[in-house]
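Hi R.,

Here are the chain sequences for the assembly we discussed:
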Amino acid sequence: MDSAEETTGGYRPWSEVTPDAARRLLVAAVEAFAERGYHATTTRDIAGRAGMSPAALYIHYKTKEELLHRISRIGHDKALEILETAASGPGSAAGRLDAAVRSFVLWHAAHHTTARVVQYELDALAPEHRSEIVELRRRSDAAVRRILADGVAAGEFDVPDVPGTTLAVLSLCIDVARWFNTAGRRTPEEVGALYADLVLRMVGAAPEAAQK
Amino acid sequence: MDSAEETTGGYRPWSEVTPDAARRLLVAAVEAFAERGYHATTTRDIAGRAGMSPAALYIHYKTKEELLHRISRIGHDKALEILETAASGPGSAAGRLDAAVRSFVLWHAAHHTTARVVQYELDALAPEHRSEIVELRRRSDAAVRRILADGVAAGEFDVPDVPGTTLAVLSLCIDVARWFNTAGRRTPEEVGALYADLVLRMVGAAPEAAQK
DNA sequence: AAGGCTGCTAAGCGCTTGCTCACCCTCCGG
DNA sequence: CCGGAGGGTGAGCAAGCGCTTAGCAGCCTT
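And here is the predicted structure of the full complex:
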């Protein structure tokens, strides 16, 4: 099992999870959930991947669902941070949209294992955890919508349906986590560049407008 | 449980499944798989929704996985038919792309319960069933790529990366099944129209070019 | 009326699941 | 040298899983 994709890239993921054994369990859970899905993953599988006995899991986490919640929370925090950073940055709306799509897609491709769990296992969360996460997603939506609205107001974009286009842009980016494969021909950077171009076309912005 | 979305629209879905009890079980399975996912759905749940005992399921299907395979096969056949019909139709490349995206998205929205199972439960299939389905998906990809290549050759489209754009277009359409909600504000037709417009912009076709 | 086929159920088998519990290391301040 | 706390294990429990089997009602044919 290769997890190089999670440890490269300059920043150390999951560094906020301590102690060490809790982090190893969480990383093992991310891999297992991404491969087989939350419901098809057993606590024995997670513990085994982390090199521990099944009982060890319950020293650090109350339930299997708490593990998913921690993963989902940390992942959504990161995704939201990426979008809000791009949305509130300097430069033109086109430049900010380019940066938002590019970095958001880059994250989904480079960390597609994590992203797959974060984006596709929402329904497995307990109701109170689910609504907490849904609120974070609402804020992600708002960040993208703000860029589009700014671009329309500034005359940079031609977007007849801002909420609908916001939905489509986020949907397009999120779905990268489903199909992206490290064995494929494209690097995360290439996919980010391709998608940024496609999205700028969707909003009717000239390609050169993205150069802030 | 309301299944009006599966019975409206002029064509009768699952009519190819007989006898009646087998169809009722299959429809029940579609609903259950879409709501909770394949692995989280029990055979008792499926049988209960169909108003039968758990054992009744095994008269018509050998295993729970065979149910998923039948659903996936029928759904993929329908999806492929929609794309190939549009791809080999008359008219300009822009007109065919418009029709393909519009009808493909319409199907994913109107039958989002079925589409969710078809598009997101692929990994739960047994290896030999999975590769059969993957072949159908390869042909869907080829149908869209053909339209894009035709448009580029005819000078209608400006698409620097045909395989990448094909992937993005299909990904965008497929993901409709994940977020579409009958309680939402948009009708399947409206989403189809919106997405057809967005995709035509992605390939650099003038909106009026779609009018064959 | 008899016989057999079809479609279904009640009961339950063998197994796996999430999770618990009694116990045991290792480290560390006094 | 001790005692307790934190991190770990082996064994196992109750519940739920996919699936099987024995048996039975209703209907078609003869």
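The longest helix of chain A spans residues 127-153. Chain A is about 65% helix and 0% strand.

Let me know if anything looks off.

Best,
T.
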